[in-house]
Amino acid sequence: MLLWIIGIFIIFWAIEFFYLRGENIDAFDQPAGQSFATGAAPNNEHKLIENLLKENFSTLRKVSRKERLGKMREYMDEMWADHEFVSTFTETDIDGLKAEWVVAPGADSLNRVLYLHGGAFMLGSPKSHRLLTSKFSQMANAAVLAIDYRLMPEHTRLNGIEDCRNAYRWIVENGPKGQQSASKLLVAGDSAGGNLTLALLAWVRDQGLRAPDAAVALSPATDSTIGSPSFKNNMETDALLGPSLSFMKKIPRSLICWVSLLQNRMSPSNPIVSPVFGDLSNLPPILVQASETEMLFDDARRYVNRAVAAGSPVKLQSWAHVPHVWHMINESVTEAPEAFKEIEGFLKNPRAFVTDNKAVHPMAAFTT
Q1: Has residue 271 got a pLDDT over 80?
Q2: Is-catalytic flag, 155?
Q3: pTM for the full model?
């Protein structure tokens, strides 16, 4: 009996280690890109945002677990209810998939951005991310398509991925004024949406579809095996993700991998859900931005280092002491307009911006 138990344990361990966990990419935990970090400690702006986030989490903890997901979705959708936007928001339908066009005054509808919102694959909508989609419409001089992809747990992770793929096929030939081919096409997303963005780029390449002219990923999750060192090392300094994910600090990675397998119905190291493990060659210019003190920083850094090693034009920009996807805070912290200024510069000439020798870390010592 004991031998049977030991044998079963060895089988489960082998499956986790060789199949679920994926290859060892510790070699890509190297400095990369361009750091805008200033000061060794948070300033008053950072502390104010941290206190505000703590207050919000304190309020949510008072809600029962059964009601929490619904309340969080409601909270996200109402974040910008009182904000005055200059952009127009027009509902549209993509073969049953709800979406909206976001168009800033004077934006060229032949220039298009497919925006994939964040929210841990369980939260968010086009409405919750109007601050970012409106900003992208202005920065890119483009019409932004924000899709309401299917969320977990009501749907599978793959359902949401399929929605993103279908939306990409559609936006190539359709704009806010009807069926028109896009003259310029971009893809962007934050957090979970950053994951969907990076995974989508590889899929577009492999399908032989028209490649986007560029892509932007804000604080992207790239590793569903939770193997990045910063996931646990930065838990105390990430004011947004830290409080809600602190319970994971004591959970073994092997158990996380098995839970991810059951939840996503595929290996957590599959590039469809973990783009860092995929083929990162022949990608369009990509700008990745992340906070050096957030839990997903090494997700971003590892992805960029692997992509650069594979010969793709990808650049990482990082700031410190700001929370995960600080761009959503808008003018509340100095780093938000700084980040938007960099994105706007990137969108004007993506390839030249990314291949700036002063900003790209040499990866000649790495192999894929």
Answers
A1: yes
A2: no
A3: 0.92
